[in-house]
Structures are given as structure tokens and as C-alpha cells.
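Researcher: I need the complex structure. Ligand is NDP. Inputs:
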Amino acid sequence: MTTQEKLESIFAAVVQRNPGEAEFHQAVREVLDSVGPALEKHPEYADAKIIERICEPERQIIFRVPWEDDRGEVHINRGFRVEFNSALGPYKGGLRFHPSVYLGIVKFLGFEQLFKNALTGMPIGGGKGGSDFDPRGRSDREVMRFCQSFMTELYRHIGEYTDVPAGDIGVGAREIGYLFGQYKRITNRYESGVLTGKGLAYGGAQVRREATGYGAVFFAQEMLRVTGDDLDGKRVVVSGSGNVATYAIEKVHQLGGTVVACSDSSGFIHDDKGIDVEVLKEVKQVRRERIAAYVQHRPHASFTAGQSVWQVPCHVALPSATQNELDATDAATLAAGGCLLVVEGANMPATPRAIRVFAETGVRFGPGKAANAGGVAASALEMQQNASRDSWTFAYSEQRLRDIMRDIHDRCYATADEYGMPGNYAAGANIDGFRSVAEAMLAHGLI
Ligand code: NDP
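Model: Output:
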């Protein structure tokens, strides 16, 4: 059997064993499409069935989460934690609270996470979790009761040396605080390293909040640097207006670019003078309003309901909302509008067909696995500070993040070159992450 045939048969088995999990299939396909050359160079990986083992999570936990709303009505949600791979360290990856969450989403995110974590070069394995609970429109006390119920089951599966969750969509500082409080109460342990993304008041780390967005922009900066270019004077469009998007916008502005549009699930805002980040934070983080409220503070800006933000022309696009939010039509629109670079702040925001359009039209592409790894890298730095009971300054933490992003960029770039695919960051990221995980798995024997 050729390597390609072997990979096709592994993929067919993954689809058959995990029916109905379209996002997981998509994430696996994307990796299998790139790792063929690494398997040819390392036949020992195939002999030890490394790929088949990587595609099967080490443990999958699904649990009931009952909670009571402010009117006394009982609700039942479903909780998930998929502990994908611990070859490189304790399972590490965020929790997502969003009504679309089901096992297939958690598995796609956990699968991506293990390669991403490997790329950071830090000692962390891959995992992911969440719930189909929707925090939007819920009071603080409802969110607290949900988080307490969620942790009442989750606590027995996690720990600083076992599995270390963090935030993701719908899980920010508020939720992490409630989750940490309940973990501490149940276990009677002040185990700071059990969760990352904590508040600065109780063991959190500087720059963790900003890290994913800042990191994606540092990655874009590196991609521009290798072609002798930079962000200065560039028009940028960002999708989303949550944690990743907000801090990506902030960093683009600090580096001389202008973000002219961003979005949420209701539509997008266009502000040709540049998105005012402080107004955006007030609307989305403080008041938890819909993004249309931005134009009340910046009357020259416009809000467009229910349409794609990718119709706004730009030099650099940073999709930073959710999976499969940028399709082939959007990709063609971006290319026609003069877009040079697409860098994924979110996980898997560009569809496979969109990525093909980028390749055909010469738009350079930075995959999320590499470009948004700044968040988890800063989480690993938070774990490091917790373990040594230390806390670093903002400036030092940001410098560490910048160095890590440059290193990830250079690894992807060099690996793509080494395997004869220059400039193909997706292949570089997949092969480099895969090699690190595979080597550790080989060393551990058949487990
Ligand atoms: P947030 O919850 O803070 O923000 C998510 C943003 O995306 C919101 O503006 C939200 O709009 C929008 N959005 C969410 N779902 C949809 C949808 N189905 N359709 C359209 N818009 C949607 O999440 P984060 O910023 O933390 O995460 C964004 C992405 O980045 C995700 O893919 C996540 O996995 C990834 N990521 C996050 C990391 C982190 O450190 N937070 C680390 C690495 C990756 P609305 O307000 O209307 O819901």
C-alpha cells in the first residue's frame, strides 16, 4: 500500500468510528493531507500506528450539568472533556460554552490543540472541553450556578499534573473565576495550576488575556517580515469581537496598521477611521451588548446586519470568531479586494475550499494551529509562574510571547522548506507538531 493509500484508509476508519462528527473529520483530514512526507521519512511511525493512536482520544468524558435559573426553573446541559493526548505533558486546552457544542466540536478542537501545543515547544499535551450551555443573556448568578455545577463533575478529572483547562468561546475571566472557586471549595486545595486564564487577583498571569490576539498579530508580522514587508499602513479586517479579536485589533493598531471592520454573530461594523478598541471593550466586555451599539459612540461608523465582514476590502484578514466562518466565496472576495495575507486567530475558521482559493490566488495563509498558539503558550507561562509562586511583569511576559511566536513561525517556515513545500505554513505546522508528538509517543511504548 502506498503512503497515500494508507492515509486514506486511516481516514475512512476515523469517519466510520466517529459518525456524524463533521468538524472532527475535517480537522483530521487536514492533518492527514500534510503528514505523508513525514511518514515516508519515518517508517517507524507507521509501524507503531502513531497516526491511528493520535486519532483516538485517550479519554472522553461526557456528563450531565443540572442548574437552576433565576426564576427557579431547572435546566439540564451536557458537559464534555476530551483528554486527547498526554505524550508531551498534562492535557491542556480550553472550555467552550456555546449552544453549538457537541462531541464533534470538542474533538476537533482537542485534536488541533495537541499539534498546536507541540508547536509551542512547551511541556503540554492536548485536550478540550465545554458545554452546550449559552452564557449570553444569562445573569452573573445564573452563570455562577452553571459553572459550579459543571465543576462539581469536572473536578475529579483535572489537576495541575493531569489536565489543565482554560477559556475559549463563552468562557472568559468571569467563568474561570467561578470554576476555580468551586474547584478550591470541593478539593480544599489552592491549586493555582489547575486552570489558566485566571484573574490577576488570584494567580493569573500578565498577558494571558491578550495573548491569543497579540500572538496572532505577531505571527502575521513575521509572515510579512520574510517578504520584507510589515504591518505599517496596512488595512486589516478582523472577524469576531471577543477575546481574540479585541486584542488582535489592539496590537494591530500598536504596530501601525488600521483595523477597519470587525463583527459578532449579529453582523459587522465598519469604521474607516479605525475601530476604537476602548469603545469596543465597553460595548462587548463591560456591557455585554450586541456590536451594533458601537455606532452609538462612533456615529460615522456603520453596522450591517447578518452579512459577512469579508466584503470589506483589506490587506490582512484575521478571522477570529469561530470554525468555518470564511468560505470559498469570502476567500475569492478577499483575494479580489487585494488581500495579501490571511492569518487565523480562531480555530479552523477558513473552510478547506477557502484555503484552496487562497493557494490559487496567491493569498498567503497562516493556519490557526500555529498563529493562535500564543494563548496556550501564555497559559503554559502561567503554569510556570504558578509552580514557582512567581509573577512576571507585563513587558517581560509580552517579550516571552513575542519570542515564542517568532519561534513557532520559524519552525513552520523551516519545516515547510525541509519537506519541499516552501511557504506552506499549514503543512509546516502539521508536520512539525506531528513529529514532536510522534517522537514522544514512540519513547513511551505502546500505551
Ligand atoms: P469569545 O467568546 O470571547 O468571542 C467569540 C466571538 O466570535 C464573539 O464575537 C462571537 O459573537 C463570535 N462568534 C462565536 N460563535 C459564532 C458563530 N457561530 N457565528 C458567528 N460569530 C460567532 O471567544 P474567543 O475570542 O476566546 O475565541 C474565538 C476563537 O478563537 C475560537 O475559535 C476559539 O477556539 C479560538 N481560540 C481562542 C483562544 C483563547 O485564548 N481565547 C485560544 C486559541 C484559539 P457573539 O458575541 O455574537 O457570540
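Model: Summary of the prediction. The mean pLDDT is 97.
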